[in-house]
Amino acid sequence: MNKILGILGAGHLGQQIAHYAIEDNHYDKVVFFDDFTQESIVNGHQVIGKTEDVLPSFSKKKISHLMTGVGYKHMDVRAKFYNTYKNEIPFATIIHSSCWVDPTAKIGKGVVIYPNSTIDSHAVIKNNVLLNIGCTIAHNTIIESHCFLSPRVALAGFVTIDEQTILGINCTVIDNITITSKSQVGAGAVVVKDLVKKGVYIGVPAKLISE
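The structure assignment produced for this chain is given below.
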């Protein structure tokens, strides 16, 4: 059986994942499931149905693996899709060949790691996480499920990022920090203490601006 990746969502993020899946030789073919597009072909890949068609498509061997292609503006939807299908269909894990991942690091299911990222020793990246271009995850750091890291996020050692957190481009987190679930840290922010309240944080040092 060919390796055929089904991506939930044919928008820009889904298209990026499709590009890496094919161009970096992870999958033989990519297809989309999308509840909104009227197109039958998106960026060269077929749209073979809506999200309700995922399980029938898997049973008919139209896909071998699944991945969430929903962006950071819909974090609850990302988590819902993963939790709906995680026990039904194998989720893909795509780590670009330009990345460096220490052998002791643990990478979960449904994870996408974009080019030139570095994952240090004993780091843990749990399920359905996306790391954009050039992220650095230092030793013993844990990223819980369904998080979204923008380009060039830098996490020092012994950091914990709780579920459904968004880290903005060029965000930096110093060592031994915990960021609570469903938080959003803005572009260029520097986190120097635990973020214990769910909300939006910006600045140097990062401060809560809304809950």
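Interim note for the steering committee: The chain has a mean pLDDT of 97. The longest strand covers residues 4-8.
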